[in-house]
Amino acid sequence: MTSTHGFEDFVRSYQNMVYSSAVRILGNETDAQDISQEVFLRAFKHYDSISNSDTAGGWLKTVTRNLCINHLTRYRNRWSLFTDQFSRRGDDGDVEEIVLPEDESSTMDLDNLDRGEIISDALMQLPDKQRVPLSLYHFEDMSYDEISKQMKVSLSKIKTDISRGRQALKKVLARTMEDHHEYDA
Amino acid sequence: MNTTPDPERDKLDRALDETLRNIPELTAPESLLTNVMARVTEEVEAQHLSWIARLQWPVVAVSACFVFFAAYFSDEAFSALLGYFNTEQYAGEIQNVTIGIQLVATLLSATAKVFSLIPPVLLYSLAALVISVSTFSCAGIGTVLFRLTQPGNSMTHTQKTLL
Questions:
Q1: A52 inside domain
Q2: A112 to chain B: which residues are within 8 Å by CB?
Q3: Chain B residue with Cα closest to A7
Q4: Would you say A133 and A164 are in contact if contact means Cβ atoms under 8 Å apart?
Q5: Contact A4 B8 (CB under 8 A)
Q6: ipTM above threshold 0.90
Q7: What is the CATH number of the domain that holds A134?
Q8: What 3-state class would DSSP assign to A132?
Q9: I need a labelling partner for A66 at 20 to 30 A (CA). Which of A95, A134, B103, B111 fits?
Q10: Mean pLDDT, to the nearest integer, of B69-89?
């Protein structure tokens, strides 16, 4: 029988990584917690083989990614990523305007950590169809082609969605940099 | 289409890439570890229960074999008993009782014959297995009933599934 004590240390080691990936893909902390639990439950079933493996992190990331995408496709009707015909705000080429909380855009000393938090929050506000491929591209190191195959969406749409997501984030970034006179420097 | 490189835009792209690269990992809530370990405990319980459940099938299989052999070897005893109870003394008077007695007698005879064929070690092992499974089943049901009657303790997912 697998040692639950050893497994607890294993969970402690990887919980932030798994949770972060899930939050970035799902854009929802509650769903991310559920998926993270499911990931670790699966890890427990394969604990004997992955506990001493160097690829445990990669295994967890892959399972997290697959479960998140399955979750989105199965339970979220509002997610229009898989239906190219479905038209909604942001599909006409416009980039969505992201509204930041007052206290975040008015921070006096904007270091990299603060900027990361602002962009991270802005990422959460992107529509699923932009946030998911963007997260897979930037945080999961997947190529356009891999994302296209994984999500069963055309390559051109993936490129367009990532591009629009980046434009929205760049708007936020430009605004924060302007506020702190970095953009003109 | 304007293809002239825009230095400001390139700068923004690089800044965005750098920012995305440097976004730190989120801190998982404390409840995640607690919930995972609770579910793992449930999983371990479920594994124990599933082993007990798996043991029930061999018992059923052994019982089926027993019935088969009982039927096979009881033919002679069955014929003898049938002949005895179908004598004129009993015929037409207590037919229903006779049939009942015939069945019991047949089964007893068959049981004795089958048990005599089974080596004692195997017989005692089988009895131990049956008693163990029964005990575990009773203990499992008892646990479920105990938890049901405790207001502070909700049932685990496994126990809900079993019910």
A1: yes
A2: 19, 22
A3: B37
A4: no
A5: no
A6: no
A7: 1.10.10.10
A8: helix
A9: A95
A10: 63
How far apart are the C-alpha atoms of A183 and B163, rounded to whole Å? 64
Whether A118 is covered by a domain: the verdict is yes
User: Which CATH number characterizes residue A30's domain?
Assistant: 1.10.1740.10
* pLDDT for B52: 66
Rounded to two decimals, what is the model's pTM? 0.59
| Most B CBs within 10 Å, among A9, A41, A118, to test the B interface | A41
Chain A nearest CA to B163, separation (Å): 23
At B103-139, the pLDDT tens digits run 777 777 777 777 777 777 777 777 778 877 777 777 6
With left for phi above 0 and alpha for psi between -120 and 50, is residue A28 left, alpha or beta? Answer: beta
Query: In a 10 Å sphere around its CB, with 0-12 CB exposed, 13-18 middle and 19+ buried, how is residue A22 labelled?
Result: buried
* Greatest alpha-carbon span in chain A: 62
Q: Do A44 and B35 touch (CB under 8 A)?
A: no
What are the C-alpha distances in Å from B36 to residues A9, A36, B19, B29? 12, 8, 32, 12
Ranges in chain A, pLDDT < 70: 1-3, 75-113, 178-185
Least confident of B9-13, B58-62, B66-70: B66-70
Residues A96, A126: contact at Cβ < 8 Å?
yes
Query: Which residues form the domain of A110?
Result: 102-179
Q: What is the rounded distance in angstroms from the CA atom of residue A55 to the CA atom of residue A57?
A: 5
